[in-house]
Design a protein that fits this description.
The structure holds two protein chains of two kinds. Chain A is of the alpha/beta class. Helix content of chain A is 46%, strand content 23%. In chain A, strands 1, 2, 3, 4, 5 and 6 form a six-stranded mixed beta sheet that branches. In chain B, helix 1 runs antiparallel to helix 3. Classes of the chains: A alpha/beta, B alpha+beta.
């Protein structure tokens, strides 16, 4: 699965304002709504379920990254938002460190394999120090898109 | 003093097991796997039997890269003095559907 196929370009936030987990989740979900990837009527419900999911176990897996997500029947295809924080977000990460790169996933409820493929594509990149470093240096949506294009073309060569 | 038998205890143990829970090895089960693996001294590696590329069973990021859906067979390998116990618990965890359904 290519990242550019699932990332909602208008929901890339190179300069996330929020500095705490719940605010960050709201800000990113709002971007998905503004981008037309999620109906405004579902905004609050999605924010609530994503936060609830985080409380059951943090998706701040360390190395300054987090992948909050929700599976919902109203989602028909994978939609991913990307946020980069310059100052760091207090995300209750497993290593207690602030988070700088957030991939937020909306996944269809009945396609667990799509969700897993998306996670594989995301972590294939996030597990690499260079990818994390370049992403953190991004200040414009175009910077993020360029990075994703490069990693997608590298992935397809593998 | 180690007992004479301990010299014969293999320190590398592997097991193949199928992911049976409907949602596959998504974040929460992967986290449970990593937490269980991390309780032991043994090194733990996991690979899909169809690709054979091992990942670190104590790294959540690497475990997420397996994309193991329901029905995927994985091979778990533990190496260390508590290898057998490590494998026993990890296999039991997978077979418990990660307590999901």
């Amino acid at each position: 699965m290519k990242l550019l196929d699932i990332v909602v370009k208008d929901a890339i936030i190179p300069k996330l304002k929020a500095t705490e987990r719940d605010e960050a989740i709201s800000e990113i979900v709002e971007a998905l709504v503004a981008a037309g990837a999620l109906s405004p009527g579902l905004r609050d419900e999605f924010i609530k379920s994503i936060i609830k999911r985080e409380k059951r176990g943090s998706t701040g897996f360390g190395h300054g990254v987090a992948v909050p997500h929700v599976k919902h029947s109203a989602v028909t295809e994978m939609a991913v938002a990307i946020a980069v924080s310059q100052s760091g977000v207090e995300f209750n990460a497993l290593d207690r460190q602030p988070v700088y790169c957030i991939f937020l996933l909306l996944s269809p409820e009945d396609k667990p394999e799509d969700h897993l493929d998306a996670m594989e594509a995301i972590f294939g990149n996030l597990s690499q120090e260079t990818f994390r470093r370049f992403l953190r240096q991004a200040t414009k949506i175009e910077d993020v898109l360029t990075l994703l294009e490069e990693t997608d073309s590298r992935a397809s060569m593998r | 003093m180690p007992t004479p038998e301990s010299a014969f205890v293999p320190n590398k143990v592997s097991a193949c097991v199928k992911i049976i829970n409907r949602l596959g090895l998504h974040a929460r089960p992967a986290m449970m796997f990593v937490e269980t693996a991390s309780k032991f001294l043994s090194n733990v590696t996991v690979c899909r039997t169809d690709t054979k590329e091992p990942v670190d069973g104590k790294s959540i990021m690497q475990m997420m890269m397996l994309a193991a859906t329901q029905g995927t067979e994985i091979e778990i390998t533990a190496q260390g003095e508590d290898a057998q116990q490590t494998i026993n618990e990890l296999v039991a965890l997978v077979n418990s559907h990660f307590m999901e359904e």
